[in-house]
């Protein structure tokens, strides 16, 4: 089986596991994520607007926005890193690529913490995304400039023993689930 086939199979299984967790728990609780972010008050942060069955980080993002800048990722094209548009609770939103909402007014900033959506993760920080490489490219670019903390946010049921990886797959620094915080490395 090729790496591409192995990743496709892993994605299929991960979509199913996440969908089952979402059905069992609803959009999820951001309690542990809020606790983690409380230790970084005022640090520029990027969250994400949940799509499909992703766990919802918006309650934690709303809390963080009271203390510092929060942004949402904006996809500007295939093969390009993400940019991050400032977001505030209640701001006007418009549809972006892949169904995620983005701020209507795009005032860009550079986050130091990224809450990263995912399909599956391993306890040692590997992440399986949707396959576009947007977060991998973005994290490589941000980490080349300064320390950047990548926090995977997922249901505990999305944990797997191992994932097919490529050298360009960016690792997570921490994983937060509805059950626990898995600390891995400093950003």
Automatic annotation (TrEMBL):
Q: Does the keyword RNA-binding apply?
A: no
Q: Which cofactor does it need?
A: Mg(2+)
Catalytic reaction(s) noted: (6S)-5-formyl-5,6,7,8-tetrahydrofolate + ATP = (6R)-5,10-methenyltetrahydrofolate + ADP + phosphate
- Keyword check for Ligase, yes or no: yes
In the record, biological process GO terms are:
folic acid-containing compound biosynthetic process; tetrahydrofolate interconversion
What's the EC number here? 6.3.3.2
Q: Which sequence ranges are marked TM in the entry? A: none
Q: Which InterPro entries match?
A: FTHF_cligase, FTHF_cligase-like_sf, NagB/RpiA_transferase-like
Keywords assigned by UniProt, alphabetized: ATP-binding, Ligase, Magnesium, Metal-binding, Nucleotide-binding
Q: Record's Pfam families?
A: 5-FTHF_cyc-lig (PF01812)
* GO MF annotations in UniProt: 5-formyltetrahydrofolate cyclo-ligase activity; ATP binding; metal ion binding
State the family named in the UniProt similarity comment for this chain. Answer: Belongs to the 5-formyltetrahydrofolate cyclo-ligase family.
Record-linked NCBIfam families: MTHFS_bact
User: What name has this protein been given in UniProt?
Assistant: 5-formyltetrahydrofolate cyclo-ligase
């Amino acid at each position: 089986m090729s790496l591409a086939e192995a990743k496709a199979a892993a994605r299929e299984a991960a979509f199913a596991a996440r969908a089952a967790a979402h059905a069992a728990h609803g959009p999820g609780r951001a309690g542990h994520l809020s606790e983690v972010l409380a230790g970084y008050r005022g640090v520029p942060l990027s969250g994400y607007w949940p799509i499909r069955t992703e766990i919802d980080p918006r309650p934690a993002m709303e809390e963080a926005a009271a203390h510092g800048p929060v942004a949402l990722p904006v996809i500007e094209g295939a093969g390009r890193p993400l940019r991050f548009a400032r977001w505030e609770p209640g701001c006007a939103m418009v549809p972006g690529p892949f169904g995620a909402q983005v701020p209507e007014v795009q005032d860009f900033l550079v986050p130091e913490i990224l809450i990263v959506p995912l399909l599956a993760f391993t306890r040692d920080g590997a992440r399986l995304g949707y396959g576009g490489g947007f977060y991998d490219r973005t994290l490589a670019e941000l980490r080349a400039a300064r320390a950047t903390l990548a926090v995977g946010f997922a249901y505990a049921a999305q944990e797997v023993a191992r994932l097919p990886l490529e050298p360009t797959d960016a690792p997570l620094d921490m994983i937060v689930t509805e059950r626990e915080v898995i600390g891995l490395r400093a950003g």
